[in-house]
Each structure stands twice: as C-alpha cells, then as structure tokens.
Design a protein that fits this description.
The complex is a heterodimer. Chain A has eight helices and no strands. Chain A is an all-alpha fold. In chain A, helix 7 runs antiparallel to helix 8. Chain A is elongated and about 70 Å long. Chain B has a domain of about 120 residues: P-loop containing nucleotide triphosphate hydrolases (Rossmann fold, 3-Layer(aba) Sandwich). Chain B contains ten helices and ten strands. The N and C termini of chain B lie far apart (about 55 Å). The N terminus of chain B is likely disordered. Classes of the chains: A mainly alpha, B alpha/beta.
Amino acid sequence: MFENIGDIVLLFWRTLLALPQAWRQRQKVYEQFFEIGNASLLMVCMLSFFIGGVIALNFGPPLVERSFTNAVGGVVGLAIALELAPVMMAILIAGRIGSAMAAEIGSMRVYQEIDALRTMNINPIYYLVLPRVLAIALALPLLVTFSVLVGWFGGAVVADMNSHMEIPFKAFFSDMRDLVTLRDVSKGVFKSFCFAIIVGVVSCHQGLTTIGGPRGIGRSVTKAVVNSIVLIVVFDYILTRFMQQ
Amino acid sequence: MNGPNHQPSGVSLVVRGLHKSFGAQKVLEGIDLEVRPGEIFVIMGPSGSGKSVLLKHLIGLETPDAGEILVNGQSIQTPEIASKYRMALVFQSGALLSSLTVGENVGLYLTEHELKPPAEIRQIVAEKLEDVGLKDAMDKMPSELSGGMKKRVAIARALVIEPQLILYDEPTSELDPLSSVVIGNEILDLKRRIHVTSLVVSHDRDLAFGVADRIAVIAEGKILIVGTPEEVKNFKHPLVQEFLRADFKRES
C-alpha cells in the first residue's frame, strides 16, 4: 500500500483539479449517489440499530450498577456519534461500494474501455473518478447522520427493555442531550466525509492500476477494501487528535 | 485524441526511429514508416512482433523511448494535436463500454464533449449504425452482440468522430470468414466515402492483401519491408515468405 501513497495523493489532487467539471458530470454523480444509497440504506439501518443496542448492552449495566444511570444515554450517544457510526459506516461502504468501484473500473481497464475513452479525448478522471468520489463524499455523511439517529434509537430500545437498566426512552434521550452536542455529531459527520474521500480515491486508484485478467481485478478489489480500511483507521486517529485541539 | 475542429480528408502519418522497451524486453527497435493521406496501410506480422504496441504509440496511448511520430508533419506529443486532428482506434475487442447501450457507446464522443444536442446525437448515431448495417442495435447492450457486431459498433463509434485517421487493431481476429469480409469491405468503403487514412494492424493475410494499398511486414520489432501487396508477395526474405506461406501440411 505504502508504495502507492504518492499515486493516491496525485489522483486525489487531479480529482480536486477536475472539480470545475462537476456540474457537467451531475447526471453520473446522481446515478452513483442513488446506487450508493440504494445499496446501503437497509444495511446501514440494521447495522446501526444493533451497534446502538450492543453499546447500551455493554456499557449500560456496569454504569447502572455504579449509580451512573444518567450517564448511559450520553455514553451511548457519544460513542455512536463520534466513533462508531462514522468508522463502521465507512468500513461498510468500503466493502460494499469501494469494492464495486474497484471492480468496475478495473474491469474497464483490463478490457481496454479506459484506453477507448482516452482515444476519444475523454479524461477518465472526469468521466469515472470525479462522479464516484463526489457521490460517495455526498452519500456517506448522509448515511452516517442516518446511522447516528438509528444507533441512538437502538441504544434507547435496549436500555429501556433490558432488565439490568430499564431506563425509560424519554430519560435516555434527556440524559443524552446533557452530554452530546450538535458539535459532536458534526465532528463524526466531518470524519465520515474524510473517510468517503479515502474510500473513493483509493478504490478508483486500485481500479485504474489494475493489470492482468479477472485475477488482477480480484486482487484490485481486495487491495481497495484492505487499503481503505487501514487508511480509515489511521486517519480516524489523526482526525480525532486534530479535532480535540 | 480528437477535437471538434473539422478538417477534410485523411492525414499523413510518419514514424521515425521508434524504439520501445518494457524492462529488458525490446519490443520496437527503430521503426520507420510513412503512411500517405487517404491510403489503406496494413502492418502485418506474427503474434508478438510489436504490432499492437506500435499502434498504441500511433494513437498516443504509449510514449516511445526514442523516435518521433508526426501527423501531417506535427509531433503527436504536442498538446494541440488532439484538437487539430481527429483520430480513432478500433480496438481488437471493440472495447465498447459495457455499462452503456450500443447507441450511447456510439454517441459517447459527441455527448461527453457536448458537441451536439441530444436529439441530433441520436440521429447521427442512427445514421452511423445504419452505415455499418446495425440500425436495429441502437438500444441493445454490448453483451447482447456477437464479436463481429461489436467490431462494427466500434467502427460506427469511430465514424462519429469523422476521423481523418482510423487505426484498426486486428479487425478480423475471432471472426468467421463472412464477417471478416464485411469488415474488410467496410474499411474499403470508408476510404471511398470519406477518404480517411486507414492503418490496419493484422496477421490476417486475406484481409491485408484484399484491402491494402501498401503493406509493411514487421517481425521482432523491426520493419522488414514496406511495399505494395505485389512487392511484399515477391519479397524474398525468409521470415516474410514463411509468414505468407504458412499452411497446414497433411500427409495423405
């Protein structure tokens, strides 16, 4: 992965330079955006509900035992908004959408479709990379916002129904409001925007550098997902550290 | 490699001292050739002789290690060449975008460069598809087409550019003899109708001798001969003769 960092940064820079073309590519951005939403919404919903539930299940009873009942809502709310929703959704999107991007572009490269674009003076960065990166950068923050809300709901349901907590719905959200601010949610959403750029650029880069036949495409898909996840985790630390200052 | 400034008829193409290596492997070793405006020039040679790599250099998909390529006297490396001359490559596989319909593939150049309104693009696409005998294929996906049909769609896509130079990479490979004849006739017909310069890379002897004004034979990265079909047939070089006369030997 590290030998490609320079190329990935260069592709990111070229994509930034292509931004003035964004309006012209709006139809493709919309198609990609719709595809990302369509492919992920149900999964995001399920995953977020259970993440919220399991966080409440893990942290709730020990806190209640130590008489910190009114901290449960805040802990669950913060954990989901700041960390779990952005990171888990980014990983989900890397696996679900990043892999598909790498496979599609990789297959276009192997079967000379990208060469065909070049011979028609169509820049593959304008035509393929820009719409995908833009679509994922728009979609992931929205999915994460949705995920935060569903995650909180999942946490509240478990906190209410679990016999070791039995925190009423209203109290759970009231406690959460004492600790979680809009700024916390914004931080998580901003992180997800950065992760989206990582997934988009890394996946497109892997696709564009695919060599060989179907085996090469398979390798690219694996590398796109693994490299995205590694970079998401690394950047999660860097961004969290930066945002604490 | 194309721009919207339309200029009439074919262009000349000159290749001088072209060298290309991939690692230690020398693929092209000093290629020199000249293609005249409006002629059909065929480059023949056995598999692995460097034909396709040469073709990629001619359309600007590869950069040479040494040597130059001139289109109407202007280096292909100059940035304005793309807007000045219209060139198209018909890929061996067709290289149609599998996510687009046949019509969208054919009109892609016009759509992406926003050269015409959508209704006019659809009309042009229909005309070009009719030119290659595929007027009913407009809304089909490339996966629904046979190999020969894909190549004809690729030719239609090239025609939309109104090219001054068309490069064909193995246009008859994987085709049955009848489809090969259709493609060969298409190449001849284009020369007659729009006086385009055509450069065909092929190891199909029937196609080469059927359509070429001149033929170059390439082997091991070097041009062995450039001449008319008759001159090439009579050239006494053993590699050329071996290539031209290769046939099955069956004992009765």
